[in-house]
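Q: What structure does this chain adopt?
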Amino acid sequence: MLKAIMLQLSLVLVVTGIALFVGGWMAGLSALLGGLSYAAPSLLFAIRLGRLARPGAQAAVSYPLEFFLGEAIKVVSTIGLLLLCHFLVPGLSWGWFLGGLGAALQAGFFAFLFKH
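A:
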């Protein structure tokens, strides 16, 4: 799962670089913030699931329950980060912001290429 997160971050950085080159620093910042709004909660979710999957780690905890609870927290925190960026970053370039978010969201479709 961490490989998929690293792919997300890589694609976000590629889109950020393109945005910087094409649209300037605000476009780059917007693309980076959009991508990180999804990738950061995903990374924390993957770390949490990795800890729960270890042998002997909280045997009383239901793994499916933790998965769905973690996914719900990830969705809510992603929405919260998107709203936070909207209210705290004046001059946000919405096209690039959504482009960065889209790059992070679509990374899962490319993850199968790197699966060994």
